[in-house]
User: Fold this.
Amino acid sequence: MKEVLIDIKGLCFEYGIKNNLIGALEDINLKIEQGEFVCLLGPSGCGKTTLLKIMAGYLQPTRGECKMKGETISGPDWHRGVVFQAPSLYPWMNLNRNVEFGPRMRGLPEDEINRIRNHFIEEVRLSGFGMKSIFELSGGMKQRAELARVLANYPEVVLMDEPFGALDALTRLDMQALVRRIWQKNSTTIFMITHDIDEALSLGTRVLVMSDRPGKIVKEFCTDFTNTIFQTNPRHPKYSDNYFKIKDEILDLIHSQDED
Amino acid sequence: MNMDDKRIKTEKIYTAVTWLIIFLGWYLITKFDIVSSTLVPSPYKVWMTFLRILSSGYNKISIWAHLGASFERLFTALILAVITAIPIGLLSGYFKKIKAVVDSIVEFYRPLPPLAYYTLLVLWMGIENTSKITLLFLAGFAPIYIACVSAVNNIKQDYILSAKSLGADQRQIFFQIVLPACLPEIFTGIRTAVGVAYTTLVAAEMVAATSGIGWMVLDASNFLKSDVIFVGILIMGATGILIDMGLRFIEKKLVFWKGYV
Ligand SMILES: Nc1ncnc2c1ncn2[C@@H]1O[C@H](COP(=O)(O)OP(=O)(O)OP(=O)(O)O)[C@@H](O)[C@H]1O
Ligand SMILES: [Mg+2]
Assistant:
C-alpha cells in the first residue's frame, strides 16, 4: 500500500460566530495516497472550496482533524501547492518571475532557480513568453503559468479549485491533457475540485461526490478512465458503457440533492 | 487602440476650446471696459507683467527664487510625508494595534483647517521654513497614510494566500506582494497629497513669509497690483499641472500594470 499523504478524520467546519453558525462541512473522512488523482464533484455552495482551504491550511477545522503525513496541518506551506479558482499571478512580475517565485522565496541558488523555471515553462508550453507581462497572456496561458508556478516547488500535493472553470471548452481539453501528462510523468498527487463530471471522470483515479450544504461525501468512485480511454487520444476518446453508467449515477446523485 | 486615440483627440479639442473661450471672454471683458482694469487687467498687460517678472523678478527677488523657496518647502515636506506615511500606513493596514494608535490621531487633525494649527506652529517654530514644512508635512501625510491603510485592506486575499503556499515568509510577503499590490492606491494618495500640500503652501505663504509664490500674490494684493496677482495665479496653476504630469509619468513607469488586474 502506498503512503497516505493527506488524512482527514471526522472533519466538520462551520462559518460565522456563536449564534449565527453556517455548517459548511460535516463529518468528512478522506485519505489521499501518494500518486492519486482525486476529483471532487458537488453542487455549488456545498463546501468544496472550504474543504480545499482546510487542506491548504488557510482555515482550521471546527472539529476533527486534517493531517499531512501524520502531522496536523496548521498553516499553508510549500509542500501543498494551490491553484486558485481565479488566476492569482502577480501582475507586477513578468512570467519568469511568477514561475520562479516559490524557489526564489525559498532561497534556492540562482542556477537552480533558472533550471527549474525553464523546465516548467517548457512543461506548460510557454517557452518564449518569459519576459511578457501577465496582462499580455490569454486566459489559458495564465492558467498554465499558474500551474507552472505551483509545480516549480515540487509540492507533494497539488490542490486545484476549479482550475479550468473560466476557460473555453477546447482550451479546457488541452489543459486536461496537460495536467494528465504532468501527473503521469512526475507521479504527482493531485486533488481537484470541478463542476464538470466529464472532467472528473477523464482525469481522476478517484471521484468523490459531495452532498448539498453542509457538505458530506456521499459516494466515491474508483475510476481508471484517465489511464485507459483518455490515454491514447484524449481528443477523440472511445467511451465505454461503464463510463456512461458511472456518469449517469453521478448525475442522479447530484440531481437528487437539488430535489430535497 | 484606434478608438481610444480618437476619443483622446476629441477630449483634447474640448479642453482647448474651453480655454480659448475663457481667454476670449477675458479679452472681451477688458477690451470693452466692462470691469475696471485695476480689478481685471487685460491679457496683454498680464503678459507684459509676466515677461517683466521673468526678467527682473518681483520685489528685487527673481521669480526663480520665489518658486525655488516655495518648492523647497513643498518638496522637503512631501518627501518626508512619503517616507513616513507609506511604512506607517502599510503597517497600520497590517497590524490593527498600530492602526488603533495612528488612526485616531490622523482622523482628529485631518478635518482641521491647516491654517488653524499653522498659527500654533508659527508660535512654536517661528515664521521661517520649519513651521511651513511641518504644516505641509501634516497636510501631505494624511492622504498618503489613508490610501495605504485602504490599499492593504483591499488587497486581493488570493495574492497573499498563494504567496504563503509558495513558501514566502512574512517579510517577503510584505515586500514582494503587499507593497507592489498597494502601489496604485499609494500613487493616488501621493497625488492627492501633492494637491493638498500645494494649496496649503500658498495659504501658508500668504499668512506669514517674506518670499515664495504665495507671498508674491499677497504682497501684490496689498498694492492693488492685479496684473501681478494674475501672473502669480497662472504660474501656480501651471506648476500644479506640471507637477501632477510628472507624477503621472512616474506612476505609468512604476505601476505599468495598473488597470489590468
Ligand atoms: N467566509 C465565509 N463566511 C461565511 N460563509 C461562507 C464563507 N465562505 C463560504 N461560505 C459559505 O459556505 C458554503 C460553502 O462555500 P464554498 O465556497 O466552500 O462552496 P463551493 O462548494 O466551493 O461552491 P462553488 O462550487 O460555487 O465554488 C457556502 O454556502 C457559502 O455561502
Ligand atoms: Mg468553490
Chain B is about 80% helix and 0% strand. The two ends of chain B are 19 Å apart (CA to CA).
